[in-house]
Structures are given as C-alpha cells and as structure tokens.
Amino acid sequence: MLATSPEFKQNAREALEDAGLQKALSFSRPQFMGRRARAVAALPEFEALRDIGRDIKNHTLANLDFYLETWADNVARAGGVVHWCPTADDAREAVLRICQKAGARTVPKGKSMISEELGINDHLEKHGIAPIETDLGEYIIQLRNEHPSHIIAPAFHLNREDWEAQFRKSHTDLPPDRVFHERRDILTEARTRLRQKFLAADVGITGANFLIAETGSSVIVTNEGNGDLTQTLPRVHIALASIEKVVPTLEDATSLLRLLARSATGQDFSVYTTFSTGGRRPADLDGPEEYHVVVVDNGRSAMLGTEFQGMLRCIRCAACMNHCPVYGAVGGHAYGWVYPGPMGAVLTPSLIGIDQAGHLPNASTFCGKCESVCPVKIPLPSLMRHWREREFERHLTPAAVRSNLRLWAFVARRPALYRLATRAAAATLGWLGRKRGRFAWMPLAGGWTRGRDLPAPEGDTFFARYAKAQRAGRR
Amino acid sequence: MAGDIATEGRATILGAIRRGLKRGPLPEDQAHMLRERLVEHPRHLIPARSRIPHPAQVTLFLANVEKEFGTSALVPDAAAVPAAVADYLAAQNLPTAFAMAPHPELEAMPWAERPMLRPRVGRAEATDLVSVQQAFAAVAETGTLMLPSAPERPTTLNLLPDTAIVVLRADAVVGAYEEAWDRLRAATGGSMPRNVMLVTGPSRSADIEQTLELGAHGPRRLHVVLVET
Ligand code: SF4
Which chain A residues are closer than 8 Å to B175 by Cβ? Predict the structure, then answer.
C-alpha cells in the first residue's frame, strides 16, 4: 500500500472538513468507549490480566526464535506447511504461488491487517486472481476501492447511506425497487452475495490473531463467521501472520483472549474464536485439504532490542485509537497507511521509515488515554516521544520548528529572561481571551488551533502562581 | 528448489531475531526450561466468576448464552432431545429437515418417535437451513461452546445453516476455558484437532454504523439443548 503519511497534515485538514466522516466519527466513537468501559467494569480481574498479558508477550518476545521454531515444527507435524517470508515481497510471492498451484480464480478473504500491509489484493489482481473481502466492513471498502480506516472496524468512516449507494452501484443486477431501509437489508444483501463466493472458491485467506507454539495452531477471532467460512469451505487455507503473533501455550492465548474482545468491541468474548491446526484429517467430512501459514517479518525483527520492542506486544484490539482524541477528530485515513491511531503512530515509522511517517508521532495530545486502555500496557506516548526525538536528531523537523525551538532553548536557559517573556505572553493572552476563555484561532499557530481550541491563560505564569501559593502556604 | 528458498527464509528470520535480541540460539539449559513450560502449560489468573459449584456453573453458562443472544432449553435426559428440537423448530416456524452430526450420542436418540423431524446425518450443505451439533464442552465464564472438529463433529454444521441447534450434556459444562482445554487434551491424547471452534452466541456484525445485527455470515439463531443427565 502506497503511504500518504507524509501528507498527514493535509489529510487531517481534509478530514476535519469532511462532513460525512465527522458524522460517522461522532456517532460511532462514544459507542466503542462505552462498551469497553462496561465490559471492563464487569471483570474485577481486568487490571491484573493486563499485567499478565504484558508479561506473556514480553516472555515470548525475549524467546521469539525458540517459540517460532517450536510452532513451525508443530505445524509440520500436523501436516501443515510454513512459508518463512523475511519481506513483504517474499510473502506476496508465497501467497501467489499457493493460489496459482491450486488453480484459484477467486479467493475469499477474512479480515487481516497484515494482508493490507503486504498489499496481497493488488498482487493477486495483477496476476489475474480476484480476491474477495468477506468481512462486511472490508467488503464495502473493497467495492469502494478504499482502505480500512480502523483496524477492527474497517468501514468506521461510512454511514448507512454510503452502504446503500455502493450496493446499488456495484450490484448492477439489483432490482431498482429493492429496499435498504434497515441495516438488516444491507446485511442480507452482502451475506447472499458472499455465500456464492465461498462455495465456489478453491483457496481462502485469513489472518491470525495468535500462533500457538505448543500445538502449531493459528487462531482467528471474528463475530461474523466469515473467517470460518473462508478457512473451512475452500480446498486450501492460507493463514497470514507476522512473527510476533506467536505465544507459547493455549493457556497463554486464553489469557490474552480474555483481554482482546473486551478491549476491542466490549464483548466478553468474540462470537467465533477458532484454532486451526493442519489440514483435513483422514475421516473428516469437511475442512481444507491443505493448510499453509505464511509467516512474515517485514521489519519486525529490527524492532527487537530497541526501545520499540514493546510495540510488538500489540494484539491489535484498537482500544488506543478508539480512545484517542486525535483519531476521533480526523479518523483513520488521515494517518495515510495501514495502521492508524496511537499504535499506528508508533508502528508505522518502524515499518515504513520515519522519513515517510515523521508526522505521525506528532499526532498526539499526550493525554495518555491510549496507554491507560492498552490491554498489554504499551507505553504509547513515550514511544511516540522517542520517535519525535529521533526525528529531531535526524533534522527532519522543518527548519521553522527547529529555529523556534532553538530560540525557546536560548530563552529557557536564562531564567530571568524566561520569566519575563512568559509573564508578558500570559498577561497578553489572558487579557485578549478574557471573554471566551479560549482561542479558536491564534496568529502563528493556525495549524494547532484548526482542529482544537487553545484555552486562554488566566493571566499568571506557572512560576508566579507557584510563588504565590508558596507564600500563602507559609503564612 | 522451493525447499532451499524455504530454509533460507527460516534462517534469515531467525538470524534477524537473534541479532535483535543480541544473542545466538538459546543455550540448551534455557531451551530446556522453555520446553518444560510448554509441557506444563501453566495456567494464569482465572476470573473468580466461574470458581463456583458445578450446578451454579451450569446456571451461569445458560445466563451467558442468553446475554449473548442465544436461547436454551433444558431436558432431563437424552431421550427427550428430539421432542425439544421439534418444539423449538415449531415455535420458530422453521422447517423440520436438518443436518445432524454423525455423533454416536446424537444417533442413539429416538428421532423416529418424532416422524415430523427429518434428520440427515452428515456435514452441512449450502442448502441446509437447520443443523444439530454435539458440543464437546462448554465454558460458563462467557457462555461459550467448544466444538472441536472430528469425523463425528463436522465444522460446516456450525457455520452454514441459518439456525444452529447444539446438544450439550450438563457434565460437559466447565467453569473456565483452561478446564475445557485440559478435557480436550485428555480426550485427544494431546494432539490438537484440525479445527476447534469456541462459539459464543449467534453470528453478528456491527460494521454498519457500529450497531449490532445478528446473522452476518454464520447462524442467525443459536439454540442450546442442555441434557441434565
Ligand atoms: S497498542 Fe495496545 S491498545 Fe492499541 S491496538 Fe495494540 S494492544 Fe490495542
């Protein structure tokens, strides 16, 4: 996927002016937050489970080579085939080879972010194979020729009208009097169309939420059942997974699953949590004959041993973006690549380079909400700060910002001057903003105030107030 | 040739991981400890909500099935299952033909006593509207059914029909997932079945405006028939 992350600022500006997107965001976001809060409140052990989740992932990452090898050996023992792919190119080729060998023409797919990252669909299409997204949200996104705007709710940015309009456009045989008054009508239309695709397919592609070393299994978690149809009906099942998905045992996966659905959709458990191990057994009446796992590095191993190693704990629950004020203001597409929100702001520079994604770590108010909801306790704000520092060191920050910061550093290193300057600024701003208490626009800071208001200071600097409070305390 | 490429990819990835971790392959004593951990597969924290006596676990399971938009019926013994299935289908105005798992427990039930019912034993086909499946275990913690694939428990029965009926013995209800895993390990000699589905309620989607609709790609209705003995 071609990144538009370098244009984050322009993307964000457009997103703020997109009325449809703003409607969808304001409607959907509070629901995610409310559902998670209720699910968490109903499980007193949730906080303790977050520590456990973090520890399981840390233990696995510290021994990643061992667990991956064990997992791969167990896949082979169960009759499956592992394709080790260091790069995205390798993975695309591996998928294509399997599809071509199976003589596949249409390939249904379960929702998979790694597939988006690798650009599997484009690659298959280029070679005359038609990938069909079967997750409802992914399906409409594919019809609209878009990318997902959210890692678990790909069509987060769409409203009901958008669905109806797209179906009428794409399903050209629809009778004009067909009604789409209810969400149910939309669902039925998609279900009927996709059923035919499942039944006719030779190969099905899914992602994987976890790989299990103990058993050689891959695990998918869905609510619709599309992933299960994808991996059950066609003759060949391909699971795509990145290397950090492995966990040691069923018990380890279970503890993480207790966190995943609650953090993601606010369910206690997703409807279908399915463990696949090898292909069809001799007397089985159904299931794929071939089981392949394409396991991909694509930049992850380079994060090991760096301050970003902890990011590899991510279980892709989306809680961080659901609670992020920046995501809530601009939506997912503005981030310009596969992974939006706080997790994307940390991961994207690691995977496509800070020169491409330098703006993303700045897309933060540092409110800390993301870290406080992350089920595996990834310190997202400090990781974003690491990127900012690196970016600054590499002199990729625009010259104006750097010279302003240099000026600030000059003043800040001279206490008397600093106090004088901030006192003057606070007094001026306080006087100017005394009526509304906020500025919706500020000279020289137009970029900052476009998406948010700047609260007016109350006339004193921090130092002045601190001194006043100290004097009051001593009295 | 393909073998060479595969081996190369494996070596490249493992080498990159070890470079990142700043070490070579794990020393044997450490690898041994990790293998022990895999064999012992230690449990972590199990939420207190399922640490209750068995009858209360059964009650909790049924309450959670309902919370997740499933339904249930209680029958005293296996002989009463066909009547319960017939009643359910009639109440929902559903056809009386269904695909049924070739499971010995199901096949031993007196289906002939209900001549209206037309079971077809086997996997599900695209045209089946109703299925009857046998559950290996069920987890009270979240109202979750464990359905491992086997010749007598085809996976398609869980997915293709619009209405899935699952027959579950009360003694197959456990408190937590961990207990279900241990039962599965014991029953299969430790080798994982091809497919293990953990099913919690009927299929659904919230992709349209984040609002829940039942019956996305899988069954729209999930009905549990709980056999008390
Ligand atoms: S960073 Fe944490 S909160 Fe965000 S998607 Fe990953 S696991 Fe979830």
Answer: none
